[in-house]
Structures are given as C-alpha cells and as structure tokens.
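Q: A reviewer asked whether we had any structural model of the full assembly, not just the individual parts. We don't, so I'm hoping you can provide one. Inputs are below.
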Amino acid sequence: MDFGTQLLQYLLSGLSTGAIYALIGIGFSIVYHAIGIINFAQGEFVMLGGMVTLFLLQSLHLPLWAAIPLAVLLASLAGLVFERLAIRPLRKAPPLSLVIVTIGGSILIRGLAMVIWGNDTHRLPSFSGDDPITVAGATLLPQHLWIFGITIALIILNKWFFSHTISGKAMRACSYNPRAAGLVGIDVRRMTMFAFMISAAMGALAGIIAAPLTMTSYDVGIMLGLKGFCAAIIGGMSSGLATVVGGLVLGVLESLGAGLISSGYKDAIAFVILLLILLLRPQGLFGRPESERV
Amino acid sequence: MRRGLLNYLLVAVCILLAPLFFSGSYLLNVLVFAGINTMLAVALNLLVGYAGQISLGHAAFFGLGAYLSGVLTTTYGWDPWLTMPVAALSVGILAFIVGFPILKLKGHYLAMATLGLGIIVYIVFNEWVDVTGGPSGLSGIPNLHLGTLVFDGDRRNYYLVWSCALCCMLLSCNLANSRLGRAFRAIHDAEVAARVLGVNARLLKVQVFALSAAVCALAGSLYAHVMTFIEPATFGFNTSVELLTMVVIGGLGSTYGPFLGALLLTLLPEFLRVMRDYDIVFYGGMLMVMTIFLPGGLVRGIPGLWHKPLALRRAKGDAADA
Amino acid sequence: MLELQGVTQIFGGVTALKEVSFSIRADEITGVIGPNGAGKTTLFNIVTGIYRQTAGRVMLEGRDISTVPTDRLARLGMVRTFQNIELFGQMTVLENVMVGLHSRSSSGLFACLFKMPWAVAEERRIRGEALEWLRFAGIEELAPVTAANLPFGKGRLLEIARAMACHPRLLLMDEPAAGLNSQETLELSALIRTIRSRGVTVVLVEHDMDLVMSICDRIVVLNLGQKLAEGTPREIQDNPEVIAAYLGDE
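A: Here is a predicted structure for the entire assembly that you could use as a starting point for your response.
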C-alpha cells in the first residue's frame, strides 16, 4: 500500500470515529445549554447503548432492528432517571457539588454495568455484513457507511428539532434565559429533563453504531465520553455544526497520530488537544472570545 | 485553639497506640495503606475542600512521586532519603507551572482539564517502557532505612507512614487557620469578593495546587519504598476518583474528614467482601448520596443528625411553652 | 482621587456605557444615581477591574489603573461592597473581617504551614484588628456566627466592616441601602458619615433618594449609559433633564 492510500485509509477511519465523537459531543452541549453543566455521565449512556443492545440480542434474542430502538429508548429512560435522582435535587447547589454528583453518577452506572454484564469485551454484529468495500485503494466496511449515514441523519434531525419544533424552540429559549422562559410559560424543569433524555439517546445511538467496529465493554464510557467532550470543546460547546467539525478533526488527528506516530499514545493525542483548546481557546476553535463577565 | 490541639493529640495518640492492640499483620498492612491514603486525602482536601477547586487528576501526582522515587533509586542508585524531597519538590514545581494555565478554568472545565492531565500522565507511565517498565511495573525499589533500622516490616512501615500522615494533618490544620487558609476558603465562597479585598486568587490557587501535588508526590515516594513495587494501574483515573470520594465522604474542608474518609474507604473493602467486588458501584453511589443528602460529609453530617432532633425537640418545647 | 476618562463598555454589540467622564474628589461622599439599566453597576465593575472597559481610562490618584488586576487595587487603597452582599458564607463573621486584613499582612506559605513565631504574632494582630472593625460596625457580638446565617441587614454591616479592614482611602458602595428597613438605613447613613470622617472618600450607587440627597456632597447622574448631569444635591434636584429622565419624557 503506498503512502497516499495509507493516508486515505487513516482519513476514512478517522472520519468515522470522528462522527461518533461528534454525536457524543452534541449530547454534551445539549445538556450544557439546558442547565449549564457538563454531564460527566454522558459517556456512560454511550456505553449503555452498546451494552443494552448486546443484552437484548444475546439474552432476549431480539432481532437487531428491534434491539436498537429499544436500547436507545432504555438509555434515554436512564437519562431521565439520572436527571430526576441526581440533578434535580441539586438545582441550587454550588457547581462543585454538581460536578461531583455527575462524576458519582457516571461511576455508579459504569459499576452497575460491570455487575450486570461482567467485565468482558464484546463485539456487536455489524448491521449489514463485513464485506469490505474498496475506495481508491483504501478499504471501508459497510459499518462505516452506517456510521456516516446515521450521523448525518441525526445531525439533520437535531437541527430540525431545535429550529422547527415547539419543544426544540422552548429548549433553546431555556438556554438563553431560563427565568424569562419560565415567565412565558415554558416548563423549564421539563425541558431540562428532555435535554437529558435527548442527549442520552444520542449518546446511546453513537455507542450502538460504533460497537461493531470498536468493541464494547462496561468501561468504554470514560474514553468515549471524554473524547466527545473534547469534540464539543473544539466546537465551542455548540450543539450544531461546529461540534461536528470538532469531532471529525479530533477523529482524523487521532487516526493519523496513531498511524504515523505511535499507537500507544493515540489516546494521549485527544487529551493534549483537549488541554490545548481549554487553555488557549476556551471559546472553541471557531468562537469569538467573549469579554469576561462576572 | 487549645481544644484543637487537644483533639489533634488525642487522634495522634490513638493512631500511635493502635498497633499495640492487635497483632494481625494483615490488618497492620492495610492500615499502612490507610496512612498513605490519609496523606493523599489531606492533600486533595487542601485544594478541593478549602480552595474549592476540583481535581480529577491527583493520582498523577501520586504516581509521579512514586515513579520518580522508584526510577531514581533503582536505575540511578540514588539514596531513597534524597529522592523523596527531590520528587516532592520537582512535582510541586511541575504542578506550579501547569497550574497557572489550568487553574484559570473553573468548575466542570477544570475537572475535565485535570482529568485529561491525569490520563496523559497515566498513558506515559504505560508507554514509556524504557524508563517506567510499562504496564508490567517497576520492581526492586529499596526500602527506606535509618542507620541499621530498615523499614521493611508492617509495624515499622506503620510508624513511618503514620508519622508522615500525622505531620500532614497538623500542617494542613495550621494552614487552614492561617491568613492563607482563610484566603483559600474566601476564594471558595466568593471569589470576586475575595479578589476585591486584595486576595490574589490566581496565585493562591496555583500555590495550593502545587502544595497539594507535592504532598501527593511525597505519599507516592513513601508508597514506592513501602511496596518496593509499583505499576501504572495504581495511579489511574479510578484512584483519582477514589481520593475524591474519600474527601467528600469524610467532609470537604474539614480537618479530620479526609482522615476519616481515607480510613473508612481503605478498611471497609477489606471487611466487606461485597465492597471489594463492587467497589466502583459503592464509590459512585457514595459520591451521589453524600453530595445530595450530606454535603458536609460524615464529620459534619453525623453531629448534624445528632443536633437536628435535639433542635427539633427544643423548638417543640418552645412552642408548647408559648 | 478617582477620575474616569471617556469610559466606554460594549457587551456583544450593546453599549452599556458611552464615554463617561467625571472625577471624584477626595474626602467627599459622591452619589452615582440613575434609573435601572443606566450602567451604574457596570461602572463599578470597570473601576474595580472586574470588567475590562472597551475604551477609556480610569485613574486612581493620578495613576492609570485600567489594566491593574482587581486584587492589586485593594493594596492601592480602593475597595468596594456589592449590591447583593457577597459574604464568605461558610466562614464566621470574625473570619470574614480577617480576610479583609489579607492585603495588609504578609505571612507566606511556609510561615503559615509551620506556624512560625512571626506568623503567630501577625495572626494575633489580625484577630485584634478585625474585632475592632466589628466593634466599629456595631456587630462585635456576632463574631462567632457563621456568615451565611446572618440577617440581611447585619450582613450589609459585615461587608462594610470587612471592606474597612482593608484600610481603603476610597470605598465604593453598590446600593448599600437596598433591602434595609428605614431604621437600618438611618444607621447606615450615620456609619457612612463616620467612615468619611476617618478620611475615606466614599462613592455610592444608590436608589434611595432620601439617603443620597441627605449624605452626598456631590451627585453624578447616569442615564442609558451616559452621564446626564453632575453637581450638588440641590443642583441635581432642580435639573430639568434629570427630572425628565426619572419621570420619563412626556
């Protein structure tokens, strides 16, 4: 394989992992806009997506087309329960408590997953076979196409939801000014709940489409969650295209770094980028600096 | 103030006499780790409890201390007593430098940045095989010794570790009740107001971060010399979370809270088989339950539970009188 | 004492302050008034370095402090209080005031950790002086109370005691009478006069017109981010533009 094809190969696999990061990142920013916190448990919903699907397939012998929506639904219910039990009681608590409670929640979910499903690594079957497709010398699996397709569909759906539906608009209003939104009759608490459900569902779906390629186990949530967060940070916590670009950039850089520099340090690349962005451009790669307000 | 000193002496005497009352070497061994964890929790409490700045990467400083001591003594043949201050100092300086940009961040962003830092260091421990030995660890680290007295038994290590832990507790107590301790707590409660009153929040946060990192490094050195073997898995994300859990359970910003939390979280898993298998469920659950129901931690929560019924009864009594 | 030169502040396209210039004379009590949204608190935030102004300069005793960080301003002799009192809630009343003495003490990390004799002596001095300031504000009996449990009025007094512990030459007060009853307001105006008599220049942003008119030597009126008028209370009361701004244009 010559260098050009190799590069294309890295690029393609980078884009597909990047798409996953983008979906997780959008989940982070939806919750961030709804309530102003970073939900550390976001990655666990990604894990839940893969693990629950696997459970439905193997233990309940459901077909894939039924297991996937059911798993997404269950994950989004988990999001709802999490919001009810952990976030709502702390609405007026100091930020430190909110940070700690979401970390606690993430570890609890991870731990429960380990107790229920053990700590083995599993692979979800591909959606439509494993026959590679050759694109200009580089190979692509059908699952990659699924990932691209579903990501694009979700991003469009997300965009449509927030700009064209009543609930979506209400959620945006809450993020701009919760008090004013409350005054015009929007149920802010309900919107927060929705935000958690939607972001959990998006995370879960990301976890499901990735699982046939990257494997899944009870602890994939930490890394995937952090990388999704990294995508959102690159995108300046936007819940739109900037985060998608952030995810893709991260995915490609990681894949190139792993291929050309060292695969051992692959994960470190994401965190170095995360730190650099947080420290140098906290408003994201595309945002304009805000004047500091207290 | 006098009472504070008395409390401290009481705790110190209890700790130093404890080995006389049980001979089981196993328990003593566990208590050595409780001592190291106490040092770590006290250090983290300086940052999280007093100054209100979260860190999810403190296991990295613990690990850096351990690896510096381990590598300098085994590969370069340094004296263990020399490596300890060198490790603590260099980790402190490193944290000071890293702290300036990182501690500009607040809340969730700070948590994510420290977490990222911790994971980067953890990856380096694993991947820099030539120096650290990689995932299989680093062995043959010498024990500490004083003249002919070698700290190799559990009882000797117990006294070694706990005297360090007691020193840390005393120093942290001193700091909390000093001009700087008040400034830290002021930053925690209302940073803008503190700055307006002339508190250099930026510098102080970095100072306390560096101090806390240096103490963690010291604990790491002790750990390396006590265990004589170290591996990266000890210094991962789970350890950072475990440390945070200790501080939160014991009581953020209290003198003895971290000590109590460390003792509890080190001892309980040894007695409760269930807790050893499901430790992360327990940590996660505890973090949530404590934050929601007992934000002051055990140290403040338990007396609170005691006082609440009393206060209620008193209020009822007053109502009856009226 | 304090001089503002063409201070402008723009927040994402919204002009909060437009070329505001005035100066505050030493040993006077100056009131800054104006309808809601006139930019009074923004002005304070700029002067104390919490916001960075878009344009213009702030001079303190002839020195440009536009880029001086907030915490250095206390050492230069300027302290402020907040509209929604900002106490250190988990600390005792006495400790709150002791933080006020932070900038006038110097024990470092090492001395504090090891309780060096000079740090202990300094600690004793801080405690004594803090108690004096509590006495000054008339709340010494509350010294051991946790600040979060204070009633609002007492919290206001604590904030003033804490600010005075910094030995400011210039004290900025953001709506000190907000939330106080008429008795407390009376006590407050007496306290402000005492503060001035100790040689401290006072600037207050205030809505309570009776208070402003009775204790201020001079008044600056802001409206919609611009300076509308400046003068003695009498001049301001008679100024037709000010009356129009407050009552709305007919």
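A: Points you may want to mention in the reply: The mean pLDDT of chain C is 89. The beta strands of chain C are 2-11, 14-24, 29-33, 55-60, 63-64, 78-81, 170-174, 201-205, 218-223, 226-231.
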